[in-house]
Design brief:
It is built from five helices and seven strands. The protein has 169 residues and is an alpha+beta fold. The chain has two domains: 41 residues; 110 residues. Helix 3 packs across helix 5. The N and C termini lie far apart (131 Å).
């Protein structure tokens, strides 16, 4: 009799365990939309994993590579500006904001050039000189985000300091 009761008790316990235990193995199902939303939150769209680079900067560390990239851009633009003897009848000191765009192929394009009215008046060719200097840049590697080439935009400030040239009569 005790054996039959124990057997029934054991059977009830086993059935109860099987009914309850399914919840222990049940994992919450995450929808695709939730996964995408979580992934979007983890991606910072304001930064890139690898900054655009020129071949002469590729072997450097991340921060040095970024500095080398900007230095190469700046040097190229200054070289173009100094090759064209800018003759002005007024001293011009201005910080020109050059908005650049680098596509996924590494091609550098000028989007916009912001300068003050005095610079525009006395050096009307400044925009074309800056555009030519960016066209003569060496091939760049694009920026990368999670191993994928991405487009980047940034502003390169150029400090312009042109001394007044006295015209000889």
């Amino acid at each position: 009799m005790i054996f039959v009761l124990m057997k029934q008790l054991w059977t009830y316990c086993l059935i109860l365990f099987l009914c309850v235990s399914c919840d222990f193995f049940k994992k919450p199902v995450v929808t695709e939309e939730e996964l995408v939303a979580q992934e979007k939150e983890s991606i910072n769209l304001n930064t890139v994993d690898e900054f655009p680079s020129f071949s002469n900067c590729d072997s450097l560390e991340k921060e040095q590579q970024k500095n080398c990239f900007f230095q190469t851009l700046t040097d190229q633009i200054y070289e173009q500006l100094t090759q064209n003897n800018l003759l002005v009848t007024k001293t011009i000191k201005d910080t020109i904001q050059v908005q650049l765009y680098i596509d996924t192929l590494g091609i550098v394009n000028v989007i916009d050039i912001q300068k003050n009215a005095v610079t525009a008046k006395y050096i009307p060719s400044i925009d074309s000189l800056i555009k030519v200097s960016t066209e003569n840049l060496p091939k760049a590697s694009p920026a990368y985000k999670r191993g994928i080439p991405v487009q980047t935009k940034f502003i390169l400030p150029i400090i312009l300091n042109v001394e007044e040239q006295k015209l000889e009569e």
